[in-house]
Amino acid sequence: MVKQTEGVDKRSQILATALKLFNSQGFHGTSTASIAKAAGVATGTLFHHFPSKEALLEILFLSVKQEFANALGAMAVPEGELKQQARTLWLGAIDWGMENPDKQQFFQQFSLSVEIPLPLREEAMQGILGFIGAMILEGQKRGVIAALPLPLLLENCHGQYLSASRFFLDRPALARDETHREASFQLFWNALRP
User: Fold this and answer.
1) Where is the chain membrane-spanning (predicted)?
2) Which CATH number fits domain 61-192: 3.90.1720.10, 1.10.357.10, 3.40.50.280, 3.30.479.30?
3) If we measure between CA atoms, which residue out of 86, 121, 104 comes closest to residue 164?
4) Structure pTM?
């Protein structure tokens, strides 16, 4: 059980606890009562902040996705060669996953899960991470990215990121190896080329 300290936001505490329990026990293996107990709050407090376990998962998904997008947005270089901009974001995303293994594990488990409804996944990809779609459209306009449907390209990029980040999470020493880092980017970039 996590001790609730004075001034700690209960909602944030519930989200942090749910992240850990969903990662270790899965969605169906985690009860709202176990989340409340581990967070050090009453079950009624959990339901005050989140009307259901599904709503808690969805809010957690969007909040982690927003944190990820904020980190990438802070690294974005809006000018220059598109390939270099993409490399900066790709390697930054890999680094974020290594620096936030619990959140990256959550992505691994839930990003493609039926537990996250399609409209919510689309909101995360096209809304929260909308700047990636804008980069792809710009690349298509410049002729350096294949003129394929944007939603399919975004889903492909997402899948490649999940695959590469899983590889590096399983082999943390290689996440610092420049040959492997660059190879992961080249695989990503080559899949986008016309």
Assistant:
1) none
2) 1.10.357.10
3) 104
4) 0.89
CATH of the domain spanning 1-51, picked from 3.20.20.140, 3.40.50.2000, 1.10.10.60, 3.40.190.10: 1.10.10.60
Helix, strand, coil percentages, rounded to 5, for the chain: 75, 0, 25
**pLDDT tens digit at each of 194 positions of the chain:** 445 444 359 999 999 999 999 999 999 999 999 999 999 999 999 999 999 999 999 999 999 999 999 999 888 877 789 999 999 999 999 999 999 999 999 999 998 888 999 999 888 888 888 889 999 999 999 999 999 999 999 999 999 999 999 999 999 999 999 999 999 999 999 999 99
CA distance 25 to 45: 22
Distance CA 109, CA 162 (A): 10
